[in-house]
Amino acid sequence: MANKIAGIDVHKKVLMVVVVDRATPDEKPERRRFLTMPTELRHLSIWLQERGVEEVVMESTAQYWRSVWLELEPHMSLHLAQAFSNKAPRGRKHDFKDAERLARRFMAKELIMSFVPDGAQRIWRNLTRMKLQLIRDRVRLHGQIECLLEEMRIKLSVVVTDLFGASGLRILHALAQDETDPKNLALLGDDRLKCSEEQLIEAVTGRSHPVHRQMLGLQLERLRHMNE
């Protein structure tokens, strides 16, 4: 068990750091204020190592704890406390006091800790979350495109099973490029479509404004980037 514990009160621009010694818990702890810029974070790491700090506890304040964690991770054991478990008494919030209370509650095992995976797992987690968000964004964009088609009085999704399949995309791109002749648009559907040519012509016989077609082109370009 480490003797010296550092508590860090994390803010967007500043860090309030307190070092408490288990061997002399009643003595006034060392205190120091650091900025959150990269050079200052390196100074923080050196300062803590010079004082023999082996364990650091901080709160999961927004996302600002991440850069501090990454700087200190190679050098000492880190702990991330859930912020509500270190809540200050009402009307008594002070920066250094918050950091000191964090360290003392950690030593007393009064904090609820958060799980932080290792570096490789964090990378995979970030990639997975990004992929999931892109999928959600794409579903939302599909809905926006279909809403725009309704304003253009284009009922393509009624007769085409997959609006964003090969035939559907060819017709949508032609619309975005100002092709408005229903017969020419219908010719872009392939033989695998289950609707008749007459049904397809009727579905793409709309009344679109040039701005609608410009918006459609922008949305299709966004869709292309998401798919890539």
What oligomerization state is this entry in?
A: single chain
Number of strands: 6
Whole-number mean pLDDT: 89
The helical percent reads: 40-55%
How are strands sequenced across the largest beta sheet?
3-2-1-4-5-6
Q: Report the sheet-strand fraction.
A: 5-15%
Instruction: Figure out the total of helices.
Output: 9
The biggest beta sheet reads: 6 strands, mixed
SSE pattern, N- to C-terminal: EEEHEHEHEHHHHHH
- The class by helix and strand makeup works out as alpha/beta
Task: Walk me through this protein's architecture.
This protein has 228 residues and is α/β, with parallel strands linked by helices. The chain contains 9 helices and 6 strands. The protein has helices at residues 38-50, 65-72, 95-107, 119-151, 156-159, 166-176, 182-186, 197-203, 210-227; strands spanning 4-10, 14-21, 30-35, 55-59, 77-81, 113-114. A 6-stranded mixed β-sheet has the order 3-2-1-4-5-6, sandwiched between helices. Strand 1 (4-10) and strand 2 form a beta hairpin. The two termini are 50 Å apart.
